[in-house]
Amino acid sequence: MTQGKRRVWRVCDAPDGLTPKDLLAKETRCRARDAENWKADLREKCGGMSLDEIAANYGVRIKTLPFASWQRDARGRYRRLFDGPESHVIHLAEDLSPKEREEVLAHELGHFFLRHGELRHRWMVDQTGKREWRLYRRNEPEWETEAEEFGKFLISLARRRSRSASARTARWGGLRNGR
Q1: By residue range, what is the domain housing residue 53?
Q2: 12, 101, 148, 179: which has the fewest Cβ within 10 Å?
């Protein structure tokens, strides 16, 4: 039995003429729109919540791991699991300071809210010229910048909420103490 050549796929133009660059630009615009919608939703619903509470509220599990065992240069990682029911997990390095943990968790939540873990498809062509709409699992370079910017928003939201919660607690404490 002879074995055929392995098919090698590369991204190509869509049958309607849409280029990979056009498709990427369209996805980028969609992610920007989604980011603004998420920000509005989070401002409204997550008053007084820490980043850990926000993650739990949206079904994201947080696990702490010794990163040397699987990814030396990473401090955190967002993963969307596709085995069985949809599952979202953020892995954090176990040796992070509290400030680093906040920054890394916010960044990884940025990947979650911006849907960077979703399956995507592209028109692809193999070496014989056969064109198919195929699964495409490559990270885009701008994702890290997008996640970083969204993470900064989450940190400012959590800090703003914690400051206002502290002010409310101080006022309530004063009222309870007869002041």
Answers
A1: 18-170
A2: 179
